[in-house]
Queue: 2 jobs
Job 1
Amino acid sequence: MRIDLNEIQHWIKQDSCILDLGCGDGTLLKFLIDTKQVKGYGLEIDSEQINLCIDKGLNVIEQNLDRGLGNFADNSFDTVLMTQALQTLHFPHKVLEEMLRVGKECIVTFPNFGHWKARYYLATRGRMPVSDLLPYEWYNTPNIHFCTFNDFEVLCREMKIKVIHREVVNEVSGQFLKDVMPNLFGETAIYHLSK
Amino acid sequence: MSNPLPTPSVGSLNSVVASASVGIVTPQIIHFREPLLLACGRTLQNYQLVYETYGVLNVNHSNAVLICHALSGHHHAAGFHSATDKRPGWWDAYIGPGKPIDTNKFFVVSLNNIGGCHGSTGPTSINPETGKVWGPDFPKLRVRDWVATQARLADALGVNTWAAVIGGSLGGMQAMRWALEYPARVRHCVVIASALKLSAQNIAFNETARQAIMSDPNFKEGRYLELNTLPRDGLAVARMIGHITYLSDFAMGEKFGRDLRKGSFDLGSDAPVEFQIESYLRHQGDTFANSFDANSYLLITKALDYFDLAREYGDDAVAAFKLAQAKFLVISFTTDWRFAPERSHEIVNALIGANKAVTYAEIESQFGHDAFLLPDQRYQQVFARYLNGVSESCV
């Protein structure tokens, strides 16, 4: 399982009610159902991923996050999750606001565009970074709203979002350096948020 | 954690479409002598249902699936009635060995509802009290009446709990009503291209169709059979109106465009012009008028109009669905404007509000409401994979 997904389980309560935005193939939701007996729904728009969720017997709803969460009531979930989807949204801040309305707590993970590899790539080649972590060209990437950890911290302050926990995880390298200089050496951020 | 299953290739899916049929099937008739109190307050003293079954009921009777038909549907959903039969049942693309409703796994039951005109008791049957054809005197029906008779059929077939109750359009309304009326008897509820209730526009189309029938001089206030006539023209127009609303603008344009069947626009030509679409609609109308009963059409469209899942639950669909125990699969089609995706969203949102298990897929299709009957790769995938999970729970 992806390393950020592994970390998330520590912040999920037993038997809680979960909404997973951009749930992909449902790996995380299935894991949380099996280990924490959570109940919940996953939202996804990719038809192949939806099929894989159906194979796992999950409650998957075909819904575009950019159209909002207007169909979900205030505080109707214990935790609203969104892993590695923030940067694909047209209006990330609006979805974040919606997540905090629908969920008592939220967990968001996203890739750090301030990682040294991205900076080095842009600085030396003068071209948009393409790496093993972010393998797309600028014109075909689904990641349209990149941010750094620091950018996200600023957004949280501006939106008066409370950060309960923040964690930085690295899949590839820099296990020590990420804790010293997360915005330069961290690959993936995991934020645990509330209103 | 389990690895995801390999994705079936396009090739294997096409072979699913072309895979074996259930073969030749024989409709069966079952008589019910216990009176049935209908929602309208009247009682049907006895009645019969015509139905077909495909596949084999397992030892624990846990693999039975009920198919609920829509406005013009009937019991013949799959297979052929004879070796010379040109067309298979109306949902043959989805019912059969290796198909989404896999008859190698499920025992499939498909019936003609009462009030219909394909063999179950309806307006063309004899009223035992008068010895004459029921005609317009046949009791008005509601969706719940159909569900009640389907429950009796289940009893007779030894099915205590359906693995799934499945329906498209009006059939989806029956499936949802099942989940509320007999919560313990439905494990999965599959609701396709349906709605919690009809919109005003939908009722308007139905009323226009009914007016077409009733204004046919041969309608004779519904007593046409006693007078040895048929309101064919009215019924044909009713079907034409319905048919237009089942197709999308795109589908009609693709299939017919402005192609001419006969005549010409050439200067000096006085040949009467007939567009392909005109000829097609007339053919559909005429065929339907020869195979469907006008009183049945009136009765069934009224049942559609009256249906409102949440009415008796304080108009609160969330409160209604709280009674359900089934898991739900809801499917809609992007260009369906008769039962638009928004109607399915209402179903899904109410189910989520009621904390019920639900999966929802919105299938990209160009074929309007009719899409629920037509082969479509993604629709088949979603349907087959969901029902595969259902069959694994049939122990």
Note: The beta strands of chain A are 17-21, 39-44, 60-62, 77-83, 103-111, 162-169, 188-194.
Job 2
Amino acid sequence: MSEKQILTVENIRTTFSVHKRTLEAVRGVDIHVDEGEFFAVVGESGSGKSVLMKSIMGILPDNAKVTADKMEFAGKDLMSLSSEERRRLRGQEIAMIFQDPMTALNPVKKIGAHLTEVIRRYRKVSKAEAYRLAVEALAKVGIPSPESRMEQYPHEFSGGMRQRVMIAMALSCSPKLLIADEPTTALDVTIQAQILELLKELQERENMSVVLITHDLGVVASTCSRIAVMYCGMIMENGLAREIFYHPQHPYTRALLRAVPKPVTGEKERLEAIPGAAPSLLALPQGCPFQDRCQFACAKCKGELPPVHRYSDTQSARCVFTGEELDRLAKEKKGGNA
Amino acid sequence: MQMEKKTKKNRQRRMENVIVALKNDKLSIFAIVWLIVLIVIALIAPLLPLDPITTDTTSMLKGISSAHWCGTDELGRDYFARLIYGGRVSLMVGVLAMLASASIGILVGTVAGYCGGIVDSILMRIVDVLHSIPWLILVTVVSLFLKRGIQSIIIVIGLFTWMGTARLTRAETLSIKEREYIQYAKFMGVPMWRIILFHVIPSAFPTIIIVATTSIADAIMTESALSFLGLGIVQPDTSWGSLLQRAQTYLQRSIHMAVLPGILIILTVFSFNKLGNLLRIYVEPRISEGDSE
Amino acid sequence: MAKYIIKRIITAIPLILAISILCFVLMNLAPYDAIDTMIKPGMSDEVVALMRAKYGYDRPAYIQYLSWLNGILHGEFGYSIVTKQSISLDLSTRIVNTIKLILPSYLTAYVLSIVLGLVAGSHKNKWQDKLIDGFASIGIATPTFWVSMLLIYIFGYKLRLLPIIGMHTIGKEGSILDFLQHFVLPYVVLVIAFMPDLIRYVRSSTITQFSEDYVMVQRAFGASRTEIMFKHVCKNVLLPVITKLGMAIPMLITGAIITETIFSWPGIGPYFTTAVNGLDYPVVMAILLLSSGMVIIGNLVADILCCLTDPRIKEMG
């Protein structure tokens, strides 16, 4: 893995104006993706992870406003590009696949047409050549007898197959970055594994960078090298996969990990759900957004946004307490309850 | 306590949605104002110094003047007064026809939806047959068999416009009857008519209200069309439609006789439709754009 | 798919029969019947009874119904009580005149509405949408006969530009220019009458399509607004709109009754209204039966068109 960053975003903020009220969906996020790496953004529904990536892609509805200190992709400054130039990046250099394959494809267009349309948009090839490339792409994602599939309609495919078609569309122009927005959430568990396998395989083979958006930490464990944990529009913690899984420093990350079902090894542990629900984006609290659900919340959390602690070159978390302090507090609590 | 708080918040949000819609669409505000003005004037008309009946052969077919704000008709009667009294009739016919049509529609819809099976099939076949006849033709034909007048027209419009309400109510009933409290009531042996009257209909009420509002608009249009064809209101009663019909003969000399009732019809029907729209916004909780997750 | 079509045709038949029975019953409830047209004052009761027997009016109801139905299927609709003329003969000329008026106006309204509806839907809440939707909302609330009267006043009386009665000036039946002059006003009225509903339908369909997921997905793959509009949304919007054409078939007969009456256009309209005002039951019933039949056929055609064009339904066989 090279050190070169394919995507660098600093202090991105996205607001929506809805009926004269503003809703902050992304509140000052810094992320970066290295070339050839598999990066994950993890968070609950409403955390802003999807909006974050769509802001970078530039496909939000008209009532959205995106600002950032820096937004660079493959050396290009995204903010200085015209909307036409940005449009031409989509599908060609950055590709995005989505959650619900059922509704993501146009029901009255054939699968072949979906693919050839994207191919001919960015490559000066004849119809016949585009057709051939499309068939190749379908084969690459593991769809059997691709030629016969080209003439079929989306409703003739199963959910997993449709998702593969989307991946084929995304790969057809060899993008540098693939963003996968909850690609497996709407699929059966067995198909989920297949799709993730496919993504991992393709990432290695095509040497592209992948950003996986998900709410499921379990999905992330086997595939990703770096993880960012998002909550209420902010990154709570990020780090290498092993750092996050084995040495989580933020209360939210720790709570998430406790809520992931693990295969039973030795003593049985309780699944701990995080109490309460995420605050509405229209009524965000002052200070740390996690304060209402955090077992360590104190007065310091309610004032300003907590500072970012750096734990290593790769790991940082945004909390008033460091990980060690949290361990100590937890022991005290346990001792007090005993 | 939690439930009450939730429903209160729900209602608040719905009112907010409606108020936002009103602010966005100035015409809606106008529509509501117009309806209020219209209804008030229609109700207090007998108390106002208006005289739609006295004829005056010296000032026939005159245009707008200070003595007659809307001119006079072919018999010298004050047109302003005739317009207002015509509005009373048009409104009344609209509301009563709507009530008739809604009653039949709700009855048929709930029974068909609740009972299902053969009852449902038969009732829906009847709806299909009636829907297959072009409505103007159906209404005209039936009014042939009835004596002309306000009562007949209300009956006719009521009898042949219930189908839409019936279909909607049936759809609502189908989903409502699966709810737990209905199943429980059935299990407890509560008779069907009680369940329908006290449980199904109140739940379906929001949809019914919306349909009812647009029904009034449709009924007013239908009445004016029928009166125009000579099949509706007869003298000495007058409605906007019959005013238009009489205006046909005097088109060349007194265009105001035709223009004014038409404008009133447009304003009223439009306003009722807008009201129906607002009610729909109130009833359906809207997901604001931008809340992508 | 052929199975579906056949099934649909089969379910339509009892509906048509039901309507024919309804018509027959209504006709017999009427206080007058065809025999009354032939009775001269002074005829004795026996002669009347003989006449009834001769024309089969003394047979039991269901036999009368069947022979009436038989006549209908052979194009025999009976005779008008008032004019004593063959209804089928009258109908055939009048239907042609009505179609001459309605076909062009409906098609014009259809095409215009699709364009305006697409524009409105793709610019939701912007000025184009507010203008077009406003026009449609007001249009729905406007009585067509009122518009007719206004146009007659402006173009007929005030400006004296166009004739306001009938389809031809007497003596100029061959002249196309003369026909067009008579045609313009009712044509405009009808186009204005047909548009609002269609515009709202297309607009609402367009808005729904634009909010579908696949539009966002296409944007993510770099499709421009025009591409999305013409290559994707259009097709999805037009499919149900095409099936609406089927529903317009009955309009060819009864879409303009009031307008034709006002302009004295010699179509089904005045024929119907005169018959209604003159209590001419056989004519009224004939039109009732014919138009209902067209509605049923129209629904059938709409369903078949839907089946043929939507790839999803094609599959279901």
Note: The longest helix of chain B spans residues 79-115.
